[in-house]
Amino acid sequence: MAASFVDKARISVRAGAGGNGAVAFHREKYVAAGGPDGGDGGRGGDIVFTVDENMSTLMDFRYKRKYVAGDGGRGDGKRCSGRDGESLRIKVPRGTLVRDAVTGAIMHDMSSGGDFIAARGGRGGWGNQHFATPTRQVPNFAKPGLVGESHDLILELKLLADVGLVGFPNVGKSTLLSVVSKAHPKIANYPFTTLYPNLGVVYVDEGVSFVMADIPGIIEGASGGAGLGHDFLRHIDRCRLLIHLVDVSGSEGRDPAADFDAINAELAEYSPELALRPQIVAANKCDLLGDDRSGIDALRKKAGEKGYRFFELSAATTRGTRELVNAAAEMLSALPPIAPFEADYVKPEPVIDTSEELNIEHDDNMWILDGPWLQKLVASVNFSDVESLHWFDRILRESGVYERMEKMGCKDGDIVSINEITFEYKE
Predict the structure, then answer these.
(1) What domains can you pick out in the chain, each with its CATH number?
(2) Residue 181 region, left (φ>0) first, then alpha (ψ -120 to 50), else beta?
(3) What does the pLDDT look like over 78-119, one tens digit per residue?
């Protein structure tokens, strides 16, 4: 793969931790017993992926692999909350898939252009202002902030193109792209001249255009890892239409029909869906074709059997290229838009060791729970999701926390506080 094109990268991201709550008391002349006024800690910054239309590769991630958002500031007196941590925005090309590195599952497809929060910052801890009760008027404690989420991620770029040019090396894909668009791919008369995908915009008529991608040459065995094609077959996933270029000149002693079958076999092996993708078969280098037309006739028959449209052309002399482009535009107008990949990542339930130390304090009808594993538990819960809330309740119940509280006198309707989360106890 060329050093100038990177389409896969592994990185680690960590959102910011929440700031600690403050222990402070109101101090003002002529005001006695001002009471606790410690402010809350700020929220940690998020890790946010955003699309940059000016990026076309993942080269920026080749050398920098670790990304950390800002931590939230600690709270202060006079009920002043700490500043929120600065979120870190990571720019990626449109069409990048964000995958979980452990499972390979898709977390998000950056095709729509919208932002994606890959890791959320930890919530800030409560200051001691929240823990005052009629009998505890001087709470000398606050809550620490929660840690932010962290992930190991795989970034995988799948180019967004309407039309993909496929075929063996040196069949003229780069030449065709250069004459129908303003792209300037490297062109030479040897295999694997194209070492990375090239994109070009093809203008057909006023208000009618499409994006064409020149995919590096595919060889037999590419779906199993041979040659360069395996590295770039993933980019064809996005293409709504394939233009299958075949060299029919016979100048390299190849059999056009056999080449056609071989490339289609590799596409089907890589992804069965690709075997069903609409295709146009383009017989290239017709300007070099001699009197023997058996090769091109056999190819035309093969294309007809599959129901593919067939064109004769010479990309080098531009003969037949306009007809090919018009046909592609016509077919694209009837095809659905590029569909984004559906996210299939399921956030795993964290392993919570409930055997660790747990401290329970209560004052009147307020119960304050504190312990390292409780912090991890709260940080793992999405309190706006019903299933996540049920899991939270189940962990507390199965760990014996509720039973211990009931033995200490906890009753229905009492208030329970864990970090900055409060809820009403129900028997």
Answers:
(1) 1-158 (2.70.210.12), 163-334 (3.40.50.300), 351-427 (3.30.300.350)
(2) beta
(3) 889 999 999 999 999 988 999 999 999 999 999 888 899 999
